[in-house]
Amino acid sequence: MSARASDRLAFVAGVVAAAPGERVLEVGCGAGVLVTELAAAVGDGTVVAVDRSARMAAATTRRNRAAVDAGRVRVHAVPLLDADLAGERFDAAVAVDVRAFWTPPAPEWDVLARVLAPGGRMVLGFSVMRPEDRERVPAAVAEAAGARGFAVTATAEAPTVPFPTAAIELRRRG
Description:
The protein is of the alpha/beta class. The chain is built from six helices and seven strands. It has helices at 3-16, 33-42, 54-63, 65-69, 108-115, 133-146; strands at 23-27, 46-50, 73-76, 90-96, 116-127, 150-158, 165-172. A seven-stranded mixed sheet has the order 3-2-1-4-5-7-6, with helices on both faces.
């Protein structure tokens, strides 16, 4: 993984601000770089990583072998909609460049509504490839998430390369 990609994911990890003992879900974990950051932050907490690609899930498992063997990281090679998360409750969830969260009908928000613990937060990171993405993506996220009772609570942006990286934090209303 290049330093550039790591800078992006380190920025998103900082926005998530996972704390020791928390339970965190990453959707679209790719090669597992962010999983490594999150696992270090939660200490004896738990990170569950989901990726629809078996190849990426295997890469995440390899990268995080010690944490997987210790039971602190679990990896599922399925789309979020098919993941067996029954009974799971997460303090935080995160996804980076997972367009399903802002592309209708966005049923992934229904899963998050079920698995986020009261007070839990969702952080969506995305690459700002075009200037209009700064407004277009957050608006689409707010619409899709708002229909499931979520509201944007914070936004942030970092000057990563080759594109800036933005992050949107959401929580359930009320």
